[in-house]
Amino acid sequence: MITIRYGHRQFEPGPQESVLECLERGGVAIPSSCRSGSCQTCLMKATAGEPPTASQQGLKDSLKLGNHFLACICHPTESLEVALPQEAQGVTPATVKQLQLLNDDIMQVALECHDPIEYRPGQFINLFRDPGLGRSYSIASVPGADDHLQLHVRRLPNGRVSGWIHDELRTGQTVEVRGPAGDCFYVPGRPDQPLLLIGTGSGLAPLYGIIRDALLRGHSGPIRLFHGSRHRGGLYLTGELLELTRQYSNFDYVPCISGDDLPHGHAAGRAEAVALQEVSNLKGWRVFLCGHPEMVRTATKKAFLAGASMKEIYADAFNVNQAA
Amino acid sequence: MSEKQSMAAWWESRNKSLYDRLGGEGAVDAAVDIFYRKVLADERINRFFEGVDVQKQAAKQKAFLTFAFGGPNNYTGTDMRTAHARLVQAGLDDSHFDAVMEHLGATMQELNVPGDLIAEAAAIAESTRKDVLGR
Asked: What is the CATH number of the domain that holds A79?
């Protein structure tokens, strides 16, 4: 008998019933709209069991890999444990192993999770100062290549979590983290595909993870990174990135400065403008956009108009609602 | 082909839904990027898309195309009215609807869809006009 587990409750779908209909019949409210598998409003995640491939039509590869599915067209062939995407995360304690300033206002935080978590570089976790006060940070480390989970935390003006991380958090301390979540990561399978990555500020964190993940998995197509800041001091990991360009001939790094003072070896302008000028036809490219929400919004549209398929655009914008 | 077989083929082609004749979900998938790119690039109408989340909007365009292609849908005029009410206040009119229809036709032509099928899809899309324009 096939069952659907949601939270602490268990349901039995009728012969023709979708997961959405079954949960609704049980009194569970799941957001939905078109109810025919196209609008993606009823996106859910199977935390146990495999959703049928047909229920993943039209989803990004990274969502498919994470066992996401559309509840309205999901007719399960085995028992599933399901959750809404934002619910499918456990909380685990983690010990701070290292704190290191990467530039004037970005701190690298290395964490050792007490229960090891499975993550993809580029996903994010929530880090909690106390149970009611947490912020999302993208993961810059690569499992297997790095010992610890690494985050890049930019100090925000009056940042209640970032300020605490910069000023008060100490090595050896234990914090709580929840996650991982997010679909902005490298999906293996098409090693020749060209990749374009555009980031501003600490939006480099997920990109740094994604790039090394792709390279370590043997990605052979061009990988082009454009990292932007207003001034040179806002860039970081430049030495490590230049070293990667020496090590891998298919990787290319362009630091971009949007302010007036242009140091030698840097491109002038906003990262997304420089990138789209250099790569004007994005047909067939996979695109990753991380950082300031305005940049991500503009660049998503520009990348799409430049020929990138919407399904091949992976975006991770800083959440402005939690900026302080 | 025997007469019986050709009769069967004829019967099937007559009774297959528009959605199946167009190629189902694969056809919508192929069309959605082309269609939405045309819409976003069109100076006559793209001001109505200022500030929207293009990724979420693309999913809505896909739902619309699925509907126009005669595919599975849960179309209610009410949703369409509510979604466009703000735009109607901002000046959305027949000329803008016509522009979208133009892009739908051009998209299908680009994908080499036969003219009679384009006409069928256009008729379905046309049926949303009064809801979109809040009439």
From this structure: 3.10.20.30
